[in-house]
Specification:
- By secondary structure, this protein is α+β, with helices and mostly antiparallel strands.
- It has one domain: Alpha-Beta Plaits (2-Layer Sandwich), CATH 3.30.70.
- 37% of the residues lie in helices and 26% in strands.
- Helix 2 packs across helix 3.
- It is globular and about 45 Å long.
- It comes from Arthrobacter sp. K5.
- It holds the Pfam family DUF6176.
- This is DUF6176 family protein.
């Protein structure tokens, strides 16, 4: 499995819309079906509020993260199109940015022998 932790700024004035968007993923089957199509097996999204602005912090795990991003970026499924539009509106990401996982360099990878 591959995993990534990344963050995306929540654009000024979009926090309440972002919260509603995040809450909406908890109901219905569309989000679950989308994640299964993408091959995402685990995802955690957290809100981080800082003096520099609000951020969505995302952990994703999949067998093939590049494929997962491509599925979302290229899908014409109505839910996926709507989801992409929300990401672009709330975070300012471009369609090109959604084509692949964001570049990330692992700085620390700690594993305990306990537990």
């Amino acid at each position: 499995m591959e995993c990534i932790v990344w963050s995306a700024p929540i654009l000024p004035g979009k926090l309440e819309a972002w919260k509603a968007f995040a809450e909406g993923t908890k109901t219905g089957d569309d989000y679950d079906r989308q994640r299964k199509r993408m091959g995402i097996v685990r995802e955690v999204v957290s809100l981080m509020q800082t003096p520099g602005g609000d951020f969505a912090c995302i952990f994703q795990e999949a067998k093939d993260l590049a494929r997962a991003f491509q599925v979302l970026a290229q899908s014409d499924d109505p839910y996926d199109v709507w989801f992409r539009d929300q990401i672009m509106e709330l975070h300012g990401l471009t369609p090109e940015m959604l084509q692949a996982p964001p570049p990330a360099i692992v700085a620390v990878d700690y594993h305990s022998d306990e537990g």
